[in-house]
Design a protein that fits this description.
Strand content: under 5%
Order of helices and strands: HHHHH
Radius of gyration: 17 Å
Distance between the termini: 7 Å
Number of domains: 1
Number of strands: 0
Shape: elongated
Helix content: over 70%
Largest sheet: none
Number of helices: 5
Structural class: mainly alpha
Amino acid sequence: MIPEILATLASGIFAGAAIYINLVEQPARISCGIASAVTEWRPSYKRGATMQASLALLGSALGFVSWWSSGDPAWIIGGALLFAVVPVTLIVILPTNKKLQSEKLDVASTEAERLLRLWGKLHAVRSALSLIAFLIFLFAMRHAR
């Protein structure tokens, strides 16, 4: 039962942090002006990436272990959805991240604003995937042993 609890906990923390970013942090940073928003986004992203990558990998691995031990397909579905944030980040979001991190970017430009708003929309995909994984894990917990 421990892998199931830890998978659910990791996915819940990931989903909560991701949703907080979309609903609170991103709008707040943008309200401070684009130059300030990009300047704040850079260190925030670096710190958040480490935390969220660890949670996604741990939660999905524990979801797979839970499926292996229980045979309940909900664990592999939730684990796959949580793991999906990794390729989404690396393939879909990373190009935008690199542009936002570039020293060549004029942080007060309309391009900076476009990139930051695009990043928020792309990050919402991660929020949705992790929330669905968390809900599936909660559902699976009801039927666990």
